[in-house]
Amino acid sequence: MTKALRARPIKRHPTGLTTDNPRSDNTGRSCRSYRRRPGPRLIAALAVAGSLALSLVTASGPAASGSVVTARGTAAAGPGALIARTALAPRFGALLRASARPAGAGQAAPEPLAGATAGVGRGRGFVVLGGSPGVPVANPRTHTVYVPIQCTNRTCATPGHVVDVISTARCNVKVLSGCRVVARARVGISPLAAAIDPRTDTVYVVNGISNTLSVLNGARCNAQVTSGCARPVATVKVGQLPVAAVVNPVTRTLYVANLVGGSVSVINVAECNARTTRGCGRPARTVRVKAGPDWVDVDLATDTVYTANSGTADPSTGDTVSVINGAACNGHTGRGCRVVATVTVGVAPFGVAVDQASDTVYTANFANEAVDGSVSVIDGARCNGKITSGCRRIPPAVPTGMGAAFVAVDRALHTVFAVNAGDDTLSAIDTRTCGAAMTSGCGTRPPNEQAAPVQNPGFVSGPGAFAIVPGTGTAYVVGPGGPNMLSVTGIGRCNAVSTSGCRAEAPAAPENEFLMSADPATNTIYAGNITKPQIDVINGATCNATLLSGCRPIATIPVPDPQANVGAIDEATHTLYAADEASAGTVMVINTATCNAGVTSGCAQHPPMVKIGAFPSPPVFNPATHTVYASYGLTGNRVAVINAATCNAADTSGCGQVPAAVRVGAGTFVIAVSTATDTVYGPNSGTGVKGDTVSVINGATCNSTTHTGCGHLAATIKVGLVPKAVAVNDRTHTVYVTNNDFGDSPGTVSVINTATCNGTDTNGCGGPFPVAATGISPTFIVADTRTDTLYVTDFNSASVTVLDGSRCNAEITAGCRAGRNQAVGSGPKAWPSTRAPASSTSATPTGPDPCPSSPPAAVDGWLGRALSTTAAAQM
């Protein structure tokens, strides 16, 4: 990858990210078509003594795997957050804000339990928590799940100081009658995670702001007995920002990962537990872990401690796992409290879990917003506290999903579960074919299921942590730093033993595409290449739901930069319009008659261009007025109006024109045209703050030849938060707008009547408008006017929502309440658009009338490394 490419904005990533710094806003433009935070969250910022602000983007909770962290047989899991090496990512987790006050000072009384109840919705249970959660942990002996409440709400204006207690006996995949909070335990400020010592039934809670460890008596504070929940039996001082903990029941030692402190605290739990607290006041031993440990776990057979390091404390040492010899560093001896080896793993590891049966160490690599997540597989027999010969090799990795947040081992099911926060999925890795002894099964994408509901009730934004109670087939899933909700998810039918309940993903071919357009006349797909300055030409006849062998490009079209925004096709002049989204933005004019699946002689020619302005979006075309419209601008607040009658593949005499421009709302990217009403609709996603409007342009007075109406909007429509894309079906007089909201709330599509809300008649633009339910973060939408079907790509639930347009439109909304979901690969972005029929046109990634010979396709992944194909008739 060239330096020039690395410096370019990653379009449609949050705030104009660059590949050098995925959180740097170098353009100011809000062209984000995805969630701002596709993954788990725990900590975004921590205000400490003297107004010193520590910018964090990672977080963790207690290490948990197998029977080590929790009671024997229990598995717990939890998240990290985006990339540790990036700057502050607002609301990427809890915004832990606190003044310089001592632990326990100024804490409000716990909220009453009234209202902290839940029930059953959409086939699964859920629990309404007392605030934004940390990472849950389960004790199967007392049938209890403990959920730290790090903040009283998801904005984290007020840190939490309690742990919610839930009964697993009365709240599981089979019994939902008791799905509620039965008690709350008082702990320190902003509890993030917990670990359980089964021998003494002690719950250890790490408090992020207090820099302490609360010691709870689990025998007197559980789902059946709550008399001991009022206060901890002891409080232990640990390092700065403790985020995870694990108990070694053999050596009677608790290890606490201190993220900002860059250390691991070592505590003798034989003298500090629910039964005796005589050793709780003694200073803990410390192991220096320079990178900043996000998670910690222990291998009992080799007495080895492993920490996952994403590089929060020291970016140069991230993407690693530190190895500590527990035999020489425990509650009884400190002679070897140091890191003995370091393993290089995937990008941004935020979770680590040990399979005690096979001495295999699994790390969840959150990756970043340009690479899907993975799980690294380390051979613990060759890389441990005493033998380090195997630590130098890079371990194999399992491709899971976007934002692999944490892992947990269920030995009875021979399964490592990984939660993918950016996909809302739980991956099930078979430990029998992917472990230290055998890695043959590590190279393929494991089966997965939906981690939590995508709609209310029970909606979880960015599910990034879970606890498992083996034998019950139940996972308790939360979104740390997100909403106050816990989902009760069944795992009994999607694991290494049984896959009957796993998602059936559409076929996919590995490719490197971004946005697409399709020409049914020649059965050709045009796709902007992610990393190369070219548009790839793909034969739809050999790349579809029944045939994937021919998905490689048969030709390429040279363009100035990678990630071309391919757009509308004018069938009459055989012209494809595509935008080069660069600072000197242009719209390219490509001859599809000489460059298609059957004829490639003209593909190598550099296309003519029209200069319009910075960062143009995919163009849309109105054949009635021969006008091309494309949004542009540093903040996406302009729409260019191009005369296509003199700038097309047959006639380029007018391509030197200076297009007229219309000022629209900020953050406009995808636009659509209603030819029936001659109206342009442009959703405004906003910049800095979330937008919630659609700009309406009168095409009758603002087109290729008439500019009198370009100076003002006909109307502004209020829709849902962060509207991203739009499609028009003139046959039903309906415009559909996807409301993305970065996945912070359940996804919807606003349904608007074009007959009463258009460029000349705005009487019906006032709303409110009915909405259709979708998956998480609906991004692009296409309307097939032939079958009256809508397809919506749901970026953060790895799916496509299919809506019946005949029952969900401007006149009939009975079918808007529930659509069908088709599982696809991670991060689906775009549907190919098609030629613009006289009845309806839509902007680039969202086009009408998919040809039966060209089945619907969606680009998967942050950087489009796969192309999912699905037969429309089967959807």
Describe the structure.
The protein is mainly beta and 875 residues long. It contains one helix and 63 strands. The strands form 16 sheets. The chain has a six-stranded antiparallel β-sheet with strand order 5-34-35-36-8-7, with no helix packed on it. Strands 9, 10, 11, 12 and 13 form a five-stranded antiparallel β-sheet that branches. It has a four-stranded antiparallel β-sheet with strand order 14-15-16-17, with no helix packed on it. A hairpin with a 4-residue loop joins β18 (242-248) and β19.
Number of strands: 63
Which term fits the overall shape?
elongated
Structural class: mainly beta
- What fraction strand? 35-45%
What is the average per-residue confidence, as pLDDT, rounded to a whole number? Answer: 83
- What oligomeric state best describes the polypeptide chains here? single chain
Largest sheet: 6 strands, antiparallel
What spatial order of strands do you see in the largest sheet?
5-34-35-36-8-7
Helical amount: under 10%
User: What is the CA-atom radius of gyration, in angstroms?
Assistant: 27 Å
Unreliable stretches:
1-117, 833-855
Distance N to C terminus: 38 Å
Number of contiguous helices: 1
Write a compact overview of the structure shown.
The chain has 875 residues and is mainly β. The protein is built from 1 helix and 63 strands. The model is unreliable at 1-117 and 833-855 (pLDDT under 50).
What topology emerges from the helices and strands here?
Elements: H1 3-7, E1 9-10, E2 17-18, E3 43-47, E4 53-55, E5 75-77, E6 94-96, E7 118-121, E8 124-128, E9 132-133, E10 137-139, E11 144-151, E12 159-167, E13 181-186, E14 191-197, E15 202-207, E16 212-217, E17 234-237, E18 242-248, E19 253-258, E20 263-268, E21 285-288, E22 293-299, E23 304-309, E24 320-325, E25 339-344, E26 349-355, E27 360-365, E28 374-379, E29 397-399, E30 404-410, E31 415-420, E32 425-430, E33 448-450, E34 465-469, E35 474-478, E36 485-490, E37 508-510, E38 513-519, E39 524-529, E40 534-539, E41 555-558, E42 565-570, E43 575-580, E44 586-591, E45 609-611, E46 620-622, E47 627-632, E48 638-643, E49 660-663, E50 672-674, E51 679-684, E52 693-698, E53 715-718, E54 723-729, E55 734-739, E56 748-753, E57 771-773, E58 778-784, E59 789-794, E60 799-804, E61 820-823, E62 857-860, E63 866-869
Parallel strand pairs: 3-6
Antiparallel strand pairs: 1-2, 3-4, 5-34, 7-8, 8-36, 9-11, 10-11, 11-12, 12-13, 14-15, 15-16, 16-17, 18-19, 19-20, 20-21, 22-23, 23-24, 24-25, 26-27, 27-28, 28-29, 30-31, 31-32, 32-33, 34-35, 35-36, 37-63, 38-39, 39-40, 40-41, 42-43, 43-44, 44-45, 46-47, 47-48, 48-49, 50-51, 51-52, 52-53, 54-55, ...
